Amino acid sequence: MILDLDIGNTLSKWRLKDADSSEIRSRGAVWTREEWRPGSDIPDLDVVEAVRISSVARRAVLEETVSLLHRRVGAVHVARSTPEALGVTNGYEEPGRLGVDRWMGTLACYQLAGGCCSVDCGSAITVDFVLPGGRHLGGYILPGLRLMKESLKLGTRNVAIDPDSEAEELLGPGTRTVEAVNHGIYMAAVSAVNRIYSEVCDREGVPLPMLLTGGDARVISRGIQVPHAVWPDMVYAGLEACFPLTAAERAGRMSGAPRVPSPVSLEKIRAGLAFSMLL
Ligand SMILES: Nc1ncnc2c1ncn2[C@@H]1O[C@H](COP(=O)(O)OP(=O)(O)OP(=O)(O)O)[C@@H](O)[C@H]1O
Ligand SMILES: CC(C)(CO)[C@@H](O)C(=O)NCCC(=O)O
Ligand SMILES: [K+]
């Protein structure tokens, strides 16, 4: 079995992948904390032959995790943000400072779609761009839905947005505090993603396929106006591409990859942008 770990600021997600069949056997999430110890909600390490890790948590969390895993598992691969990988050049002035979850997601997206816009809707919402040809432009970081809500301190933090609600409903005016807050932060998030996408495609003169991942990807997806696809395993797919271990991975197949969405024409993107600015 291969254990893949995506250690975020809030949640540490894991999945167990069968090295022979390439099937995902189980998955889970635990709170990210200093001491990452196998317990009831963490898989049995006896069956694990290799681990791949993407971590944006404090260094102590990663060090603790790696030293624990090294004692139990033969191969431990830790992903890093590098100046170049898999045909993509990192757009950051200091490439190592780009969040490795962004780098993994973006590499996976590029492998799948070529030039792309990769969006991760987690504790933070990040939007990254790669041009056809592989130049990563950098990206945008904004607070995620939960963080935006908590920062308001209006006592509404425990009332999460129902992930099944329709965008149309969430974009209307709220008539109670929790609704006003939920609709406000939802509007902030989806408007930002829509606008960022159009602005960058306009600037660069190329319409790009958009892929979304992260805990809030499904609900944010409903408010995104341009064609896109949700890829829950996008960060894991970056780990697969960087550290291929199975036959399928070596052949370039990434698990859970969606069909590549065809972007709308540049003219349409520009018309939408002009419309929203001239109103
Ligand atoms: N059980 C949960 N605990 C925390 N967040 C949750 C949970 N279920 C859904 N969410 C939503 O998922 C978002 C967090 O997304 P994600 O699962 O990608 O976690 P993350 O690890 O915190 O992200 P990041 O990698 O940016 O740190 C939150 O904004 C929240 O709205
Ligand atoms: C932005 C987050 C928190 C998103 O998980 C992560 O990618 C991170 O800590 N990044 C480092 C800062 C940067 O990417 O510029
Ligand atoms: K994430």
From TrEMBL:
Its cofactor is K(+); NH4(+). Pfam families: Pan_kinase. It is found in: Cytoplasm. One of its GO terms (molecular function) is pantothenate kinase activity. It catalyses: (R)-pantothenate + ATP = (R)-4'-phosphopantothenate + ADP + H(+). Substrate binds at residues 92, 99-102, 177. K(+) binds at residue 120. The active site is at 101 (proton acceptor). NCBIfam families: baf (TIGR00671). Homodimer. Belongs to the type III pantothenate kinase family. This is Type III pantothenate kinase.
